[in-house]
Amino acid sequence: MDIKTFGELIGWTRDLHAHLARCLSHCSTRNEEERARALLDYLATHESEIERIVNEFERQADTNALETRVYDYLSHHPIKTHRTCDEPYAKLDFNGICREVFDFHDQIIDLYQTLVEKAEIPEAKELLESLLTMELNESKRLARQVGRMDDL
Fold it and tell me: Does 76 score more than 60 pLDDT?
């Protein structure tokens, strides 16, 4: 996707979470490990919830902020994820799934941190800071829940 505005960036982030949710859900029935299947189901639900939250950000954001150009994004490394769901999570164990999903979230957080540091327009900076806070909080919540599953 060719991202030119903050609105497109938010839409792209929403779509990444939606894609990950579908892929995790798809793979949950194909993983042989029961614990991994339960994790995949939980993660799919969590990613769908993040998709919904990001959609609300997009819906409620300041129009000027959404239309602001994102020049600095072009120099950021693209986020690595399974853009096609060729069942990568069906082959991973519990810890492998955790590593992949947390790496995905870390990349989004890194992108937003980089953009917050470079944002010059107050409305855009505020929007990015809100998105960054949401991603950080959701990542922490995910880590707590996964930690609890691991304890079982």
Answer: no
